# Entry
Amino acid sequence: MNNATAVWRDLIHKPFFWGIIAIVALLVLNVLKDPGYLAVSINPNNGNLVGNVIDILRQAAPIMMIAIGMSLVIATAGIDLSVGSMMAVAGAVSMEFLSGPGATGTAGAAFTAVGLSLLVTAALGAVNGVLVAYVGLQPFIATLVLMLAGRGIAKVITGGQNTAASNESYRWIANGYVLGIPVVFILALAIVIAVAWVVRRSALGLMIEAIGINPKASRMAGIKPKGLLLTAYILSGVLAGVAGVMSVGSVMTVDISRTGYQLELDAILAVVIGGASLMGGKFSLSGAFVGALLIATLDKTVLFLGVSSSATPAFKALVIIVICLLQSDRVRAWFRRRRSAVTTTRVDAQKKEVAA
Amino acid sequence: MSSATATPARPAGAALAARVGRSVTSNPSVLPTIASVVIFVGMIVYGEVAYGRIVQASTLSNLLINNAHLIVLAVALTFVIITGGIDLSVGSIIAFSSVAGVMLVNAGWNPFAVAVTMIVIGALFGLVSGVLIRYFNVQPFIATLAMMFLGRGLASLLSTQPERLPEDSALRWIGEKIKIIDGPKVNDLTVTPAVIVAVIVVLAAFFVLHRTRTGRTVYAIGGSENSALLMGLPVHRTKVLVYVISGALAGLAAVLYTARLGTAQNITGIGWELDAIAAAVIGGTVLTGAYGYVLGSVVGALVLGLMTVLITRDGGIPPEMTTIITGGILLVFVLLQRAVTRKKE
# Structure
């Protein structure tokens, strides 16, 4: 039992604990409205899993991608406002290529389209990175420039239209299933794990956090902040490109003004819900993962409860405010004071154990 | 005609140049602001040469009339940005405040009470942001982002249809044109009460920032919050105050905009916070705080407004280029600022 409380105590101190609680609360709310909400059934025709939970996982995938990129950028004490616009650019590049005369309906064409999209967004990410790392602009302004210009670039690419195209392999990325699970979620999970593995198994994550804490000190400790900053912004660009491919692929149409619209704000929220500070210096990819899931759950819940989708932001605002309050020291101290009468004796006992 | 105006202006111009030179050498941070003035004048000259009919009373008064709300917003953002914070909520405050305002007018409220209510609504949003930032250590970006979402969502809950102000509503008077000089043809010098309000706001903000203790505290917080605290300045109170000011000014901007347009909708003001931030940055306000001038932000807002005028006048620029040009101009200005601050180091 002692072990169980230790695990519980550990979980409660995880920054994304309240995010998980919020997801559970939202799901409970849905179940109250429709007891069968959580049911996941298997489509008898093709063996795919269907259900609201699966939908949520699928919707969360693009947010996860940009939230992961945003985590790393925010850890360097930066911010990347341009990811939403970059999603539109990636979608525009893909659709323009696939609807062009040279493209065939083959998997090869889809592969090229994805490759081109990621190349373009990587280049845009590099522009952000150069402006921040080498020119020394404030990240907010540097990426604001691309946020404004990005949708213009996407419009120039498609000639101002919402281009549509058809390619089964490309569509499969967003709508396909492997072993009954949506490809898009497997892909997102794989990328999250890969990024997490690289940054946490190597010193990369530590160095990125060091830049966020104190760039001068990190330079004196032998870290080259400029190259790392550039890497973070390029990675954010590439991941935004992946998110763009995912969100465009499900409808096979790029909507210049809507694709990825204000998704940079969702990504920033996901990161904050995951417990990272915008001041930089730390990141939690698992937190961003939970945050992205929470945002997707919230979007779906509001729709499910029959509220107009344009009112969704109000509910997002409530969730942000509540989670920020729960994470703030003042509220935590207040909780501790209320609990202290009960727990003082237990804490004393633990201290004795540690001392012994 | 241009030589006629230039000749008598020369001695005054030389004195001004000397004064500007002195202030630049003593304080390089004014250079971006001066650069924005130079570029503004340059844009006017270019527009006059390339398209004509720019330097005339009607164009310039329309520039002010159409951008009165943006000027007020830029002033609001200047206060917040100088403290090192940011306010993303102004656009949504305008949406909620204007939809609520028009609905109240339609419900038969006194127009004056409605205008006051709209400003109070904005101030309340600002107060919530300020309290979240001050008492719960929420970062300004996140706190005002929450208010941005809240405002937009509440506006959508009120109505998703365009709400029309009645034709005979007294509120429309604020947006009505008053002729000052009746020029030939349609070349009249006109103002609206909204422009006068905007000018008063600018002057008041200038006075507060440069001539009062509160203003000095605002600059001090941007320089170093800890130092300001140790000096015994009322840092906490002022920090909440700037967000209340920013929210209230956003409410005021909602009054000015709604009165001119006559309609309000839940999608009003999307992205205006970015326009206002861009205006402040173009005008020489540095996003990390402590540097910035209200008058610079006003010029920044006018640069953005003039750009729209020039793009419509040109006619040949495809609409998709507009945002690219905005981004480009913003980039030029921040690069300039960067060059200046680097020289100082």
User: Anything to note?
Assistant: Chain A has one domain: 2-306. Chain A touches chain B through 46 residues (CB under 8 Å). The longest strand of chain A covers residues 41-42. The domain at 2-306 of chain A is CATH 1.10.3470 (ABC transporter involved in vitamin B12 uptake, BtuC).
